[in-house]
Amino acid sequence: MSLDQSVSEGQRTKLAAFRTHLDTAKGTPVTDAELWGFLSRFHIMGFDFDDEAGTSLSLLESHLSQFKDDGFSFVWARIAEVVFGCNQAPGELTIDSFPQEVKDVFNKAPVEIPPELLRAAVEAAQAAPPPLVGDQANALMLATLLGSWNEKTEGDMDAARKLIE
Questions:
Q1: Are 142 and 163 in contact (CB under 8 A)?
Q2: pLDDT tens, N- to C-terminus, the chain (165 residues)
Q3: Within-domain flag for 116
Q4: Same domain assignment for residues 63 and 30
Q5: Looking at the domain assignment, is residue 154 inside a domain?
Q6: Which residue range(s) make up the domain with 69?
Q7: Statement: the pTM of the whole predicted model exceeds 0.70
Q8: Do the beta carbons of residue 71 and residue 87 sit within 8 Å?
Q9: Quick count: other Cβ atoms within 10 Å of Cβ 75?
């Protein structure tokens, strides 16, 4: 992309950084059209996590609570400390930047079904009556479609008989 005099040096540096990362991701240099295509769809979303009543912090808390029900404040404080430290000495944040105690919060334990529940489910499936087949199955399906009826009312019984036959 040709940059005229109206583009500041800071903007040129940022554009070069985007190009470098896109080149790396693609594995070959991106064209000006590809760079423009990416940048025209790229949005930086701002969040205000300083406002305790704000929706951003509430949304973050709901996401973090899926990993740890009772420790949002602890996890958020530790994350903020790491980010604050990185801001004091400019650098890149990676997963390795965070202490193990924070990373451990995001490791979900595998779901294990207790063996007694599995046994009970298998036993229930084996004890279940065989599925209905043939005329019985058809009659049951049609009765379900009919809904409720009163066996003492001749009209209801006549409608049920006609439906089943």
A1: yes
A2: 565 667 788 888 888 999 999 999 999 999 999 999 999 888 776 666 666 666 777 787 777 777 766 667 777 788 888 887 776 656 677 888 888 888 888 777 677 888 888 888 888 888 877 777 777 787 788 778 777 778 888 888 888 788 767
A3: no
A4: no
A5: yes
A6: 55-105
A7: no
A8: no
A9: 19
Q: Output the six-digit token pair for 113.
A: 């079904």
The pair of three-digit structure tokens given for residue 27, joined into one six-digit string: 């594995």
Shared-domain flag, residues 101 and 60: yes
How many domains does one find in the chain? 3
Tokens 């025209």 label which residue?
40
The per-residue DSSP string of 3-42 comes to --TTS-HHHHHHHHHHHHHHHHHHSSPPPHHHHHHHHHH-
Whole-number Å distance between alpha carbons of 148 and 16: 73
Residue 120 lies in a domain: no
- The answer to whether residue 2 is domain-embedded is no
